[in-house]
């Protein structure tokens, strides 16, 4: 018997069920999910999972895609069409499909809804439970590998949206020591009040930006002194200049941080020079 998936209002053959390439679940892990156990074709802990779903959606400011009654109908219908007696039903709701950009898409962008259901022999679980199963320990790194350019970008999305909500272009993320790690999609730099160019070292848990590396070669060629050392929010606010780097943004001067004017509130000379130099070299070398 072929399986069936519900995707955005349509029951499709599971093997052919697809979501758009620019769905935010795929691009940013910008979505939530729930799983219900199914016993004899009926969902267990129904209200508990439904309540948590609404909480998760609310926390992420994702629109509720349909009424609880409609969703219940879809969950039941997916179980029925898959002839699941014992197993699970899986629901995923994402922030929908939009041109790829970290901030939330335009209001009214419909969330994506996917429901699948599969049979899991209850006897298998009973057999495992009768014997007991093994456990191993593992470091809790959720998500402590910011050096990997992963698509698990939900925290970055929330940081970028926080910037947009405050009328800013970028958010600089701050660790528990009050030190700036990096931007939500960029590497962060300052020219500190002593005139030293500073950016966090990549031994720390940040992405090693390719633009950052390219800029470093130019800094050396220009004879500018670089200190690869983290800086605090306070140091950033007192800096002569602040800027950030990334593919797409190149070198972008920041003129204020949390409303505090940086330097004289205009793009600084070092950022301006590095931007021009980067663009010149990047254009020349582009293949
Ligand atoms: N940090 C983060 C979190 C990023 O997502 C990016 C890239 N978008 C960068 C830094 C900058 O990297 P690159 O210069 O390679 O674009």
The number of domains is 2
- Ends apart, CA distance between termini: 51 Å
Specify the CATH class of the largest domain: Alpha Beta
- Overall body shape: elongated
Protein name: Probable branched-chain-amino-acid aminotransferase
EC number: 2.6.1.42
GO biological process, one term: amino acid biosynthetic process
Catalytic activity: L-isoleucine + 2-oxoglutarate = (S)-3-methyl-2-oxopentanoate + L-glutamate; L-leucine + 2-oxoglutarate = 4-methyl-2-oxopentanoate + L-glutamate; L-valine + 2-oxoglutarate = 3-methyl-2-oxobutanoate + L-glutamate
Walk me through the structure.
The chain is built from eight helices and 15 strands. The protein has helices at residues 24-28, 46-60, 68-81, 122-131, 154-165, 210-222, 233-237, 269-285; strands spanning 4-7, 10-13, 31-39, 42-43, 87-94, 112-119, 172-174, 180-183, 187-191, 197-199, 226-227, 241-246, 250-254, 256-257, 260-261. A hairpin with a 2-residue loop joins strand 1 and strand 2 (10-13). The structure holds 4'-deoxy-4'-aminopyridoxal-5'-phosphate. The site of 4'-deoxy-4'-aminopyridoxal-5'-phosphate has 13 residues, from helix 6 and strand 12. One of its GO terms (cellular component) is cytosol. Belongs to the class-IV pyridoxal-phosphate-dependent aminotransferase family. It holds the Pfam family Aminotran_4.
Summarize the structure.
With 287 residues, the chain is of the alpha+beta class. The protein has 2 domains: 4-120, 2-Layer Sandwich (D-amino Acid Aminotransferase, Chain A, domain 1), CATH 3.30.470.10; 125-285, Alpha-Beta Barrel (D-amino Acid Aminotransferase, Chain A, domain 2), CATH 3.20.10.10.
């Amino acid at each position: 018997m072929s399986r069936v998936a519900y995707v955005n209002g349509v029951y499709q053959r599971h093997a052919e069920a697809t979501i758009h390439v620019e769905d935010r679940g795929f691009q940013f892990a910008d979505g939530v999910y729930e799983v219900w156990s199914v016993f004899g074709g009926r969902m267990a802990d129904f209200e508990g999972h439904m309540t948590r779903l609404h909480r998760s959606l609310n926390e992420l400011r994702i629109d509720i895609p349909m009424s609880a009654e409609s969703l219940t109908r879809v969950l039941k219908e997916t179980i029925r069409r898959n002839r699941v007696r014992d197993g699970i039903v899986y629901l995923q709701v994402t922030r929908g499909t939009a041109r790829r950009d970290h901030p939330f898409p335009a209001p009214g962008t419909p969330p994506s809804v996917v429901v699948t259901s599969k049979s899991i022999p209850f006897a298998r679980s009973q057999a495992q439970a009768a014997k007991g199963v093994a456990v191993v320990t593992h470091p809790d790194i959720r998500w402590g590998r910011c050096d990997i350019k992963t698509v698990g970008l939900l925290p970055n999305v929330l940081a970028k949206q926080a910037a947009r909500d405050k009328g800013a272009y970028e958010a600089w993320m701050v660790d528990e020591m009050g030190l700036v790690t990096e931007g939500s999609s960029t590497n962060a730099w300052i020219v500190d009040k002593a005139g030293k160019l500073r950016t966090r070292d990549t031994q720390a848990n940040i992405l090693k930006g390719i633009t950052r590396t390219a800029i470093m070669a130019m800094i050396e060629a220009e004879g500018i002194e670089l200190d690869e050392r983290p800086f605090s929010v306070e140091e950033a606010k007192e800096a002569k200049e602040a800027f950030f780097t990334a593919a797409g943004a190149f070198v972008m001067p920041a003129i204020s941080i949390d409303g505090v004017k940086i330097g004289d509130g205009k793009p600084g000379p070092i950022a301006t020079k590095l931007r021009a130099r980067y663009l010149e070299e990047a254009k020349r070398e582009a293949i």
